[in-house]
Amino acid sequence: MSQIAENYKRVDTVTPDKLFPGHDALRPDAVQTLVGSTQTLHFADRPPVSYSFAEKTVRWTSTPTENIAYPIGEAEYEAIEVQNGLLAATINHPQSNSNDLIIFDLPRKRALVVHTVMVGGSSTIAERSVISEAGIGGEIEQSFERTTELVGKRIHWSYGPTHFFEHIYIEPELYCWHGITGPEAGMGAVEPTSVRKIAEKLYLFSWSDRGTPFNGALVIDLNAKPRSAGRLVGWDPEKRTISQIIVGATGRLVNETQYDHSLI
Question: Which one of 4, 16, 83, 161 has the largest count of C-beta atoms within 10 Å of its C-beta?
């Protein structure tokens, strides 16, 4: 058996209890910017949702409909600042095995939501994530457009001394990752992604793993030295519940491929 085969690990063997410890070494500090405020999000396809923020908890209210399982609720949250006036708030809903990352773009009065839920089947758990946008206080005026601006970039990401990855953004909805250091060292895959542009060289990058119930949602900032921050969520098979961690990373742009589409 070759050395590569001996070192090979299946992606679904790295559960959150193995992946998450140490992954948050570079996480940004929490901020209190949202404390005392109520942010009402106006979606195109469902009633508005009002989020009222206290120091560590957020309470939301909405009009009950068939598509809203929890129109009223309360959960713990944590907000980080990704740029001046741009906040990323992570809201965990263990009672419904779901999680929200909400990017509040306060200057432009708009928000971007990544909603992840763990769906139980007869013998397995599957992850489902939906990205939606909303206006804050009224209808959204400027959408978060899908973008191809990450395509061709190869970036090495460090989440601290124990977690180091290589990302290659190969298509608008696909990327390739390779674990260099940490629990996923020697592992890799091509995974489905979604990329939205938030501002100049600032992006929401969300992906789902094919081999295990997992979703990552990060804000990638390429304005100077690459950096990112956001949250990871996965399924904890022992505790039978959703698990989350807030992370940050610094990056190095290794190279960039410029594709000549006229030759394709």
Answer: 16
> pLDDT tens-digit profile of 25-67?
999 999 999 999 999 999 998 899 999 999 999 999 988 766 6
Domain range summary for the chain, segments of one domain joined by +: 3-263
Alpha carbon distance 214, 229 (integer Å): 17
- State what percent of residues in the chain have pLDDT above 90: 76
Architecture of domain 3-263: Beta Barrel (2.40)
State pLDDT tens for residues 114-169. Answer: 999 999 865 689 999 999 999 999 999 999 999 999 999 999 999 999 999 999 99
- Cβ-contact 167, 157 below 8 angstroms: yes
Distance of CA 196 to the CA centre of its chain: 12
Amino acid letter, 27: R
* DSSP tag of 7: H
pLDDT at residue 4 in the model: 43
